[in-house]
């Protein structure tokens, strides 16, 4: 590459660096020449080298080059911060910031967006709070890019009030700031807040773009707000906003997350352009809605058309097998991933969790346990949680206790695992063990996630909690529910008191069941719903056996389709039959 007899100039080395920007070995050779020829005394070539190394993600070598530099400018510190954040190395970024402060190097307006991002990745609230103080000290809190990153950090920490206060306090909120805030609301599961702020954005006459539309369609998908989502999409089309393939994929995903699979299929077939995300969205959506055969058939069509699936596609395929109890098929698809030479298809923890769920749902609990023990990666709480959920469904107290011990050790603050174990004991009538679990929860300060259901009506989302009387139409809902219960009892409905995990009298159990949030949402839907239109209920936790039976009877009584999405899947109730075929 380099002739010995040709004297090298700085200009020649700079051109070589440009030509070798994506070739790690060549960059290292050029670095050696720079050191040998003495051109390293001035930082310009090392700056170019550092930038190239950051782009290709070789952060170890980039740090080595940086440490050789004589008094690097703030631009170079920022370059290294950017590289650490992009390569998911937040701790290194934090150590670099500490070194920077120890050396008395003054940060500039481009430093803090990267450092704040690093702390968001770390998830360390105390560090984030301290860094916010540094931002104020140096007078950067009014800068839009810094304030936006701080808002996103607080949202990711779950500090909603701090995030909203900061966002409201921003003197100038451009479209970038609005889009970032809406996106992080959706990413952190605060879609109702995202919708609220989108309405404020429109009221302030801020012109939204395709990025806004994607966030809002995703928010509507999470909330099950199909009408609101379609209104936003229609408005975007009228205002000639670029509804590109990303927007169309988000719309497709929204329909599927609202249980509207037939409309989603039409949208998919009418798309002028489809990519792997479009196909994967349909496959995952079919699986979530219990249309497992359609999901697997679509996967076969995708392969026949020469499209390469990605890891999300396989998540949908494995989920489809899990929801239908297709154990052998699931094992075969998982083996395809393991044996693939494509690194992008190497099974991730989510795929292992899917396999555990597949085996667990099918009652193969010991096999699922052995599968976890033989995994080549360290099982996380999602994987153990899938097995504990299966133990709860199949009421395996012995294995459930083993798995719960692991989870309580690794994730003591997640209340749902304690609740699952408590429910396993309650189902077996071990009330003394139930008391011990609940006592432990109180000691640890672990809180149970409150169950709620929501239903959309005329562009507004109505939320219900168990026994909720706060709704303006609470009296009418209660009367409607009593009327329905009387009618379906005559049809053969008997409350499933096994779904009440409390040691109380039978009458009290039945009373508790009759006021579950799903039932209140369905009663409201029957009062307000339009004839011939389905009632869409979104539940944040797994629905109980009694509410499942109740929904079947109500769908038969009223000839109304009830589409219920719980934490795990969709249930489509039509004429007294559920799409899950009692396998859930």
Helix percent reads: 55-70%
The coarse overall form would be globular
Average pLDDT, all residues: 87
What is the beta-strand fraction? Answer: under 5%
As laid out across the biggest beta sheet, the strand order is: 2-1-3-4-5-6
Radius of gyration: 28 Å
Q: How many distinct helices? A: 30
Q: Structural class of the secondary structure composition?
A: mainly alpha
State the separation between the terminal residues, measured CA to CA: 64 Å
Largest sheet: 6 strands, mixed
Work out the number of β strands: 6
Catalogue the unreliable spans: 1-5, 503-509
Family: Belongs to the PPR family. PCMP-H subfamily.
PPR repeats: 73-107, 275-309
Protein name: DYW domain-containing protein
Keywords: Repeat
């Amino acid at each position: 590459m380099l002739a010995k007899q040709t004297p090298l100039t700085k200009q020649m080395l700079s051109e070589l660096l440009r030509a070798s920007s994506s070739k790690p070995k060549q960059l290292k050779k050029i670095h050696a020449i720079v050191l040998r020829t003495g051109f390293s005394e001035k930082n310009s070539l090392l700056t170019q080298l550092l930038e190239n190394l950051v782009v290709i993600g070789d952060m170890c070598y980039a740090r080595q080059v940086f440490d050789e530099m004589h008094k690097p400018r703030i631009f170079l510190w920022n370059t290294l911060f950017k590289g650490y954040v992009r390569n998911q190395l937040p701790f290194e970024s934090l150590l670099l910031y500490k070194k920077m402060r120890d050396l008395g190097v003054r940060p500039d307006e481009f430093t803090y967006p990267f450092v704040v991002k690093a702390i968001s990745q770390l998830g360390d609230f105390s560090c984030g709070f301290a860094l916010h103080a540094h931002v104020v000290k140096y007078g950067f809190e009014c800068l839009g890019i810094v304030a936006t990153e701080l808002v996103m950090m607080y949202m990711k920490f779950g500090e909603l009030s701090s995030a909203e206060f900061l966002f409201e306090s921003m003197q100038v909120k451009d479209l970038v700031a609005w889009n970032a805030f809406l996106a992080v609301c959706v990413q952190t599961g605060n879609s109702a807040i995202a919708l609220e702020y989108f309405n404020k954005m429109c009221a302030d006459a801020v012109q939204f773009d395709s990025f806004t539309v994607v966030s809002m369609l995703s928010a509507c998908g999470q909330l099950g707000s199909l009408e609101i989502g379609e209104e936003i999409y229609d408005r975007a089309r009228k205002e000639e906003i670029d509804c590109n393939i990303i927007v169309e994929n988000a719309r497709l995903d929204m329909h599927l997350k609202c249980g509207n699979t037939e409309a989603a299929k039409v949208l998919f077939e009418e798309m002028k352009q489809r990519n792997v995300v479009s196909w994967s969205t349909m496959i995952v959506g079919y699986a979530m809605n219990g249309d497992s055969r359609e999901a697997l058939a679509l996967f076969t069509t995708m392969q026949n058309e020469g499209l390469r699936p990605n890891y999300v596609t396989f998540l949908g395929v494995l989920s489809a097998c899990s929801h239908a109890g297709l154990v052998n098929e699931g094992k075969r698809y998982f083996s395809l991933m393991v044996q693939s030479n494509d690194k992008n298809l190497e099974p991730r923890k989510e795929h292992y969790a899917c396999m555990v769920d597949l085996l667990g749902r099918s009652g193969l609990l010991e096999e699922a346990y052995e599968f976890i023990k033989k995994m080549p990666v360290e099982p996380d709480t999602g994987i153990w949680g899938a097995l504990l959920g299966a133990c709860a469904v199949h009421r395996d107290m012995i294995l459930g206790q083993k798995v719960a011990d692991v989870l309580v050790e690794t994730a003591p603050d997640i209340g749902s695992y304690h609740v699952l174990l408590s429910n396993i004991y309650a189902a077996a009538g071990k009330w003394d063990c139930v008391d011990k679990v609940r006592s432990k929860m109180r000691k640890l300060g672990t809180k149970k996630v409150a169950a709620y259901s929501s239903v959309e009506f005329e562009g507004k989302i109505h939320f219900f909690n168990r026994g909720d009387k706060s709704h303006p139409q609470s009296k009418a809902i209660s009367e409607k529910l009593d009327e329905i219960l009387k009618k379906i009892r005559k049809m053969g409905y008997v409350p499933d008191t096994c779904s009440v995990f409390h040691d109380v009298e039978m009458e009290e159990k039945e009373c508790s069941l009759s006021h579950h949030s799903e039932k209140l949402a369905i009663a409201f839907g029957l009062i307000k719903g339009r004839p011939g239109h389905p009632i869409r209920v979104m539940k944040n936790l797994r629905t109980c056996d009694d509410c499942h039976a109740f929904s079947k009877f109500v769908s038969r009584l009223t000839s109304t389709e009830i589409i219920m999405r719980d934490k795990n899947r969709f249930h489509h109730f039509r004429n007294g039959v559920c799409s899950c075929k009692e396998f859930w």
